[in-house]
Amino acid sequence: MLNFGRNRGQTRSNRSVPYQGLEYVDPKKKSNVVGKILLAATLTALCIFMLKRSPNFNTPSPFSGHEPGITHVLVTGGAGYIGSHASLRLLKDSYRVTIVDNLSRGNLGAVKILQELFPEPGRLQFIYADLGDAKAVNKIFSENAFDAVMHFAAVAYVGESTLEPLRYYHNITSNTLVVLEAMAKYGVKTLIYSSTCATYGEPDKMPITEVTPQVPINPYGKAKKMAEDMILDFSKNSDMAVMILRYFNVIGSDPEGRLGEAPRPELREHGRISGACFDAALGIIPGLKVKGTDYKTPDGTCIRDYIDVTDLVDAHVKALEKAKPQKVGIYNVGTGKGRSVKEFVEACKKATGANIKVEYLDRRPGDYAEVYSDPTKINQELNWTAKYTNLQESLEIAWRWQKSHRNGYGTPAVMSS
Ligand SMILES: NC(=O)c1ccc[n+]([C@@H]2O[C@H](COP(=O)([O-])OP(=O)(O)OC[C@H]3O[C@@H](n4cnc5c(N)ncnc54)[C@H](O)[C@@H]3O)[C@@H](O)[C@H]2O)c1
Fold it and tell me: Is 157 noted as a catalytic residue in this protein?
């Protein structure tokens, strides 16, 4: 063991003694000091030698430079439901992926699965960071050479947004500004932005096209609309290629069963219908509560457009491929077909084989009767069509993952948002 403190056996009496006005140095002590300096220098030289021999020394990270033929995509929120599926697809298609996530809602387990599937150097890296921290975001952009950003990270529950609006404006609108500023500063040329049909509010006419007026009615939709507006204003004087995708209701999971949807248990009360349906089938909740049976729809329950996550990430890859400098593309991503809540519940019962108890209650304030997309524009311009349009099949795939992952990806590491 090295001892840089007092030598053993050395007593206070034989240490150097300062004389008034003149410093007396014990010659034995002087040689000790020289010895220590020599030892420290030798150790430092040894460390440098060993570091230089290590394979990572002097080798820049493959993520830090642009490489011809390789598109490096920053996936914000890549530990979340849609972001993890998008990362899987990008990696399968040979993209280089950097995931940035603060794990406030996502799962490190999903990232670990991706890392196991793509362990080769330069394929995937995970950076734990909060997009609200502009300094951290700038550091990420300064150290990595991104070709494109897919900005998924967001808090994304309509009900929660009405209870905590400021959180939504901060997390969605202001964080998008941070990302956009970093992209502008570091010259990242392509942005694919995750928007939502909630930006349309409650339109008079169905189906919803991209020119349907956007009149959002809750803070979630408003925060996303503001983020869209910032992006569009910025794009007017920039050569950035921008694609804004407005998703309808996302369901399903990886058909090969590697990833699934695993929201935090505390978010269940704000949750989505598919999550509630699986929880009821697993016996985690006693049954399903369908709110509103007197809407002006054929069976009285609300109508929504359910888009499978596999189709959704395909739309992202197509948007990335077709993105052009100085051009903005805005697309609805939905099937074009509305299904009622009753239909959904029946499909869910069949997919899970569970006899789910359903309770029919009064309407929930703020819910709109009917929302479904017109996907003509994305069909024509991006050559994209939804393939997973059988509700029961999508739910069967998702159910397989849910059944074998009762606790999601395992005990989540709880972190702040
Ligand atoms: N799920 C849907 O039905 C749906 C519909 C329309 C639009 N969207 C949009 O799609 C995107 C992804 O949604 P999702 O369903 O995968 O949600 P999710 O909660 O599963 O994933 C969001 C991810 O973002 C991360 N995140 C949140 N705030 C962050 C921050 N400040 N810094 C870094 N990471 C942060 C979370 O930890 C999480 O991993 C969101 O932008 C959402 O608004 C989702």
Answer: no
Range of the domain at 110: 72-404
User: In Å, how far from its chain's centre is CA 50?
Assistant: 38
pLDDT at 136: 98
In the predicted model, is pLDDT for residue 26 greater than 60?
Answer: no
**Using one digit for the tens of pLDDT, what is the confidence trace for 102-136?**
999 999 999 999 999 999 999 999 999 999 999 99
Pick from 340, 195, 311: nearest CA to 251 = 311
pLDDT for the residue numbered 364? 80
Residues 155, 172: contact at Cβ < 8 Å? yes
**Alpha carbon of 106 to ligand 1 centroid (Å):** 8
Torsion 269-273-279-284 (CA) sign? positive
Confidence of residue 367 (pLDDT cuts 50, 70, 90): confident
96, β-bridge pairs: 72
State pTM to two decimals.
0.87
Q: Is the CB of 105 under 6 A from ligand 1?
A: yes
Tell me the Cα Rg of the chain: 28
Ligand 1, from 194, 222, 274, 417: best to mutate by most atoms within 8 Å of Cβ? 194
Look at the chain and report how many structural domains it folds into. 1
Residue 283 resides in a domain = yes
Assess if residue 21 is contained within a domain: no
Question: Which structure tokens are listed for 209?
Answer: 């096209």
The DSSP letter of residue 33 is H
More confident residue, 250 or 414: 250
CA distance 40 to 33: 11
Q: Assess if residue 62 is contained within a domain.
A: no
Tell the residue nearest (CA) to atom 18 of ligand 1.
Answer: 80
pLDDT tens per residue across span 286-339: 999 999 999 999 999 999 999 999 999 999 999 999 999 999 999 999 999 999
In order, the DSSP letters of 222-269 are HHHHHHHHHHHHHHHTS--EEEEEEE-EEE---TTSS------GGGGG
Place of tokens 């809407």: 295
pLDDT tens, position by position, 72-97: 999 999 999 999 999 999 999 999 99
Q: Which of 220, 306, 388, 409 is catalytic?
A: 220
Q: Is residue 66 part of a domain?
A: no
Question: If you count them, how many residues does the chain have?
Answer: 417
CATH number for the domain that contains residue 287: 3.40.50.720
